Amino acid sequence: MFACSGIWKAQADTLRKSRKETTANTIKPYGTIETVPSTQLKIGDRCVITANEVIPGDGDVIEGIAVVDESAITGESAPVVREAGGDRSAVTGGTVQGAVENFSAFRTASTLAGATQ
Fold first, then answer.
1. 115: Cβ–Cβ under 8 A, 6 or more apart, which residues?
2. How deeply is 87 buried, as exposed, middle or buried, from its count of CB atoms within 10 A (0-12, 13-18, 19+)?
3. pLDDT value at residue 16
4. Is the per-residue pLDDT at 96 higher than 50?
5. Under 8 Å CB-to-CB from 34, ≥6 apart: which residues?
6. DSSP character at residue 39
7. Considering the chain, what percentage of its residues have pLDDT values greater than 90?
8. Burial (Cβ within 10 Å: 0-12, 13-18, ≥19) of residue 97
9. Which domains, from first to last, does the chain contain?
């Protein structure tokens, strides 16, 4: 039990560091894309995530399909599928979008990812 707590702390530290260094491609009015630091995301912002990019904040897939590597959080090496409209649409900031041709858009949903209201 005590040995595992160090692993989880290291994973949490890694995710916090990635949040500070991650950028987000936000979708602005009229469909323009603006790159901003992920720490400036606000709840409700829409972002585009392409293959092999770090997901910049907690949110939900609202368009497309994401194959997400959640191993930094769960320890599970197999990627998980997240898709719009399903009960499995939530994505976690700091995880990585897998190598998928389609892009995914997601809406930030939580202040846990550093999003502000």
1. 41, 42, 43, 45, 57, 58, 108, 109
2. exposed
3. 60
4. yes
5. 25, 26, 28
6. G
7. 4
8. buried
9. 2-113 (2.70.150.10)
